[in-house]
Amino acid sequence: MGDIRLFVSHSHEDKDIAVALVDVIEAAMVRGKDRILCTSHHNKKEYGYTGDEDVSEHLRQHLSQSSCVVSLWTPHSRSSIWCLFELGGAWALANRTYPLLAPGLDQESLPPPLRKGMVGAKLSEPEEISRFLRNLRQRLGWDERGGASAEIKKLVEVAKR
After folding, report:
1. Which domain holds residue 95?
2. How far apart are CA 46 and CA 41, in angstroms?
3. Secondary structure element (H or E) that encloses residue 144, with its range
4. CATH number, residue 15
5. Phi and psi of 12, rounded to 5°?
6. In contact, 86 and 7? CB cutoff 8 Å
7. Are 25 and 3 in contact (CB under 8 A)?
8. How far apart, in Å, are the Cα atoms of 24 and each of 1, 83, 85, 155?
9. Which of 136, 72, 133 is nearest to 103 (CA)?
10. For 136, which of 4, 8, 84, 151 is 20 to 30 Å away at the CA?
11. Whole-angstrom Cα distance, residue 148 to residue 128?
12. 94 located within any domain
C-alpha cells in the first residue's frame, strides 16, 4: 500500500466529476506516486482500487493514512452510505476535509459537522476551485505545477451535467 495523502470521497455515479477533479489536481500541483486515492479513476493501478483486496478494508486503511479528504458533495453522494461513512471517518480522524459542492447545493446541504469553517468550493465557480486548489496544495505541501485553467473549465462543465 502506498502513502496516500489525498482521499477523494465520491459516489461512483459521479465518476466523471471525480476523474475531472483528479485531472485538475494533477495539472495544478506536483505530487509523488501513490498519493491520491480515487477509486473511480480509469487508471486503477495508480489511483484506485484494483479489486485484489476487500473494498471495506482498502478504503478504511487509505482513509486512515490520508491527511486530506476531498468530498464531492452531490445529490448522489448525499444518499450514499459509503460517502457518509467516509466523511464520518474523516471527521473522527480529524482529517482536513474539503467539500466540493455540486451546482444547486450549498453549505446548508452538508452534514452539520462539516458546515462550520467550510474551506471547500462550489464546483460551478472557477475562482472558488482555484482558491480550493491553493489551500489544498499548501495543506499537502505539494509544489505548484502551474496553470490549470483548462482543466478547471472542464471540471465546471462536467459538474453542471
Report:
1. 6-160
2. 9
3. strand 143-144
4. 3.40.50.10140
5. -65, -20
6. yes
7. no
8. 24, 21, 25, 7
9. 72
10. 84
11. 13
12. yes
69 grid coordinates: 479528504
Number of domains in the chain: 1
pTM of the model: 0.87
Per-residue pLDDT tens, the chain, 161 aa: give them: 456 688 899 999 999 999 999 999 989 988 765 688 887 665 555 556 566 666 777 777 777 888 889 999 999 999 999 899 888 888 888 778 899 999 999 888 888 877 776 677 999 999 999 999 999 988 888 888 877 889 999 999 999 98
Q: Which three cell numbers stand for residue 112?
A: 452539520
Report yes or no on 1 lying in a domain.
Answer: no
Q: Does residue 22 lie in a domain region?
A: yes
Q: For the CA atoms of the chain, what is the radius of gyration? A: 14
